[in-house]
Amino acid sequence: MSRRVVRLGGVLALLGAVLAGATSALAAPEEVKVYTDDIAEQGEHALEWQSTFARSPKRENPECTTVNTMAEYAYGWRDDLELGVQLPLARRAGEWRATGLFAEAQYIAPHDADAGAYWGVRAEAGVAAPIDEDKTWHAQLVGIFGWRSGSLNLALNPGFDIPLTGDARDVLFEPAAGVTWHIDKRHALGLEYFVEAGPLKKLLPRNQRSELLFLTADTRIDEVGLHVGVGKAMTDGASRRVFKFIAEFPL
């Protein structure tokens, strides 16, 4: 892959082209991301945009494509603590609308940044307000456990989605894992696995779960970080094909 320098305007044009195709949204904000020890440094500001395009599961009829979009602002409060705000968005009749608001905090314990194990925790809480649906309050708790050796970075995220309002109050278990191979300082390839296993008190059988396997690639253009992934359903309950695009801009 070429290391040529591309102006930031080109990156923004690419992002605009991706967003132009977004015409619908999932019922609730959804992240398809494996968390590692990568957080904003103390005093650093960052803006992240994530879009996910998913083809409906095999068992759903008629077939459809859904789009999930979210903007996130993050600030490094300390070297080990990042605070932020997430704003899920939906496009209706050619206009973008906010469909919720979430506050988040991510803590990573002090560790060797070049090799060895690391751990942390991420917490989110807020309201989801999908178009034409009732508002619901949610919290999410995600453990972050990882190990880095040379070019390899392994990460495990046991995640728990906690409904705070509404009729369904079961805590949902949603683990994720990933392995990343860094080709050099700017480029990396990886595999990620995401599971929606159902209520923690009674997990779903595997044929009813949503399980997705992603092939991912990361690069940097100037100071902008880009992450793309193509996902394949591993169970009938998962979206058959998923494409995700994440762009991170330093402020």
TrEMBL record:
It comes from the Bacteria. Keywords: Signal. Residues 1-27 form the signal peptide. This is Transporter. It comes from Rugamonas fusca.
